[in-house]
Structures are given as structure tokens and as C-alpha cells.
Amino acid sequence: xxxxxxxxxxxxxxxxxxxxxxxxxxxxxxxxxxxxxxxxxxxxxxxxxxxxxxxxxxxxxxxxxxxxxxxxxxxxxxxxxxxxxxxxxxxxxxxxxxxxxxxxxxxxxxxxxxxxxxxxxxxxxxxxxxxxxxxxxxxxxxxxxxxxxxxxxxxxxxxxxxxxxxxxxxxxxxxxxxxxxxxxxxxxxxxxxxxxxxxxxxxxxxxxxxxxxxxxxxxxxxxxxxxxxxxxxxxxxxxxxxxxxxxxxxxxxxxxxxxxxxxxxxxxxxxxxxxxxxxxxxxxxxxxxxxxxxxxxxxxxxxxxxxxxxxxxxxxxxxxxxxxxxxxxxxxxxxxxxxxxxxxxxxxxxxxxxxxxxx
Length: 359
Hints:
Elements: E1 3-12, E2 15-25, E3 30-34, H1 41-49, E4 56-61, E5 64-65, E6 76-79, H2 91-101, H3 106-119, H4 135-147, E7 153-157, H5 165-182, E8 185-190, H6 193-199, E9 202-207, E10 210-215, H7 217-222, H8 227-232, E11 239-246, E12 249-252, E13 255-258, H9 261-264, E14 273-278, E15 283-284, E16 289-300, E17 304-310, E18 316-322, E19 332-337, E20 343-345
Parallel strand pairs: 3-8, 3-9, 6-7, 7-8
Antiparallel strand pairs: 1-2, 1-4, 4-5, 9-10, 11-12, 11-14, 12-13, 14-20, 15-19, 16-17, 16-19, 17-18
Helix pairs in contact: 2-3, 2-4, 4-5
């Protein structure tokens, strides 16, 4: 089931939360609405669901206009951050609840509950109550209840937020497996980039009610369209440094290097203020373009070590390296960056590109 939002806008009184959003989600696709708190991602999900009334624009499920339909008139399954299970009902009864509302026969309801329980590997839990289950098991029940009615669309609002780190890892792969098996077109709302990048076919990264970029996780990481996208995607985060274009070079205290040909061919001029972005894996001891500074932060993560390198002008770059390479706080070092992997951003935060689109 394809979902289309056409010029979708949503206001609460005088406050415009979303304005003229266009978004198409392909049949059987899992897309993430990713972004910081208050960016409008949950508002968008609730409008698709029918909980929020659309201020203007249209929402389509396939060739059907569902803009004005309430949730009960849309065939959607919803999984919320809170599991919202009925504590006095068994797991079987919790999963079967939407089927009872739909007035399915007892035989059909039993068949459908057992079918979805098999997909989620939870047949042995059907006789228990929610209070007897772990957080991960309760999340499986909430997912089963959303999927048992065979929805056209599955909507998930921060479904893993209440789980501990180990369960989140397990449930990321589990939700992705189930979504692929059922082929249900799905929207995941999350502020966690790791969830979005590991679970979804594409990401729509939002900020202040607007989509900043839509693309695959790989595209978002390696081809960010602006500084916001580059800064939001990536862990450890990218490092930024402000400088100027001088004599075909980027120049900032502690770092000066010749611009790559693709940037020279773009519309940059001498004296122009520009910002570079360097991901931590592209700042290493053995890379060619030299960078000098002082180690001002060290964090060991066992297999890997994170370093902050502070340049003469106070600009800070982060590096991630194997645990075998050990530096100490206060060490003066001369490492290198991969100039070909550096991102360049203009004064408006847009990625500098050549006219043919090469970056």
C-alpha cells in the first residue's frame, strides 16, 4: 500500500507545526520519520493515523483519499511508546481485542491470533497476563495486536523507547524481520538515528516541521545535503570547523589544505567563509593531509578509543581509532585527514556541489 502526503499542513491554533509537506512511502517500505523533539514527526504520524485532523493538503492510501477519515475507518495498526496493554486480559485476549471490535468470529479470531503469534515466536505466552512478561515480550504483544488485523499500514511511535539497551538491539532486528515477512507498509517515528539507520529502507530527516532530506541510510551518511543532516546523522558525530578559502586552499588555524578539484570547480571564491565537516573515521594518524593539535579528550570503549583533537584556533575534531593506538591527554600530535572525504558547507549551511552535482 503506497502512502502519499500532498502539501500536508498541520496547525495547532496559531502555531504552524507542518507546512506543505510532500512525502511518498512505497508499497511494503519501512520509512523512518527521524528528527529532534518538536520537529513534527509524531504530528505527521498522527495525521496519517487519523488522530490529528489535517489542516490542509491530502493523504492517500493507494488511490483512496483518507484525509478526513477517523482512525477506526482506516485499516491501520498503531504501536505506541507505551505498550498500552490491558493488564486484566490474557495475552491472547489482548491480541484478539481488535478482532472482537471488528466482530470476527471466534474461530477466525483464534486462527489469526495463532498465526501472528507464530510469526512473533510467542505461542507459549498466550495464556499469561502482561504483568508476567518482560518489556521486550510486552512490546511483541503490542506489535502482534497491531498486526493481527492485517493492516494496510503499520505506524510505530517510538516503539523501543521504554526498553533497555539490550532489548532495543533485539527488537530492532525483530521488528525489521516481521515487517519484511508481512510486507506491511510501515512508518517508524524515532529520535534515535541508530534505530532509523538499522531498521529502515529510507529515512526522512525532519527539523522544524520540514523534511531536510530523504534517502537511504547510506545516502544520508555519505551524501548529506546540508549541515543539519551531516550533524544529525553519524555516531560519533561529525566535527565542523569554520575557515576561509584562500589561494585555492581551505585555511583555519592548525589546518590548511588544498581544495579537492570538485570544490575548486564549484562556485567558491577567494575570501569566502566556509565550513568543513570531517567524520571521525577520516581523522587518523596515517592520512595524508596534515592536522596538528593537542589531545583534549580520551574515551576508551574497549575495542575503540575516541579522541578530541583541539587545534591552535580552538577548533575541535573528533577521531575514532582502534584500541591499540593509545594517546594521552595533553599529547601534541600531527595526524592527517582524508581531504577527499571532507564535506564543505556554505554560509547558509548548504552542501557545496559542482554544477554537475558531484560532491
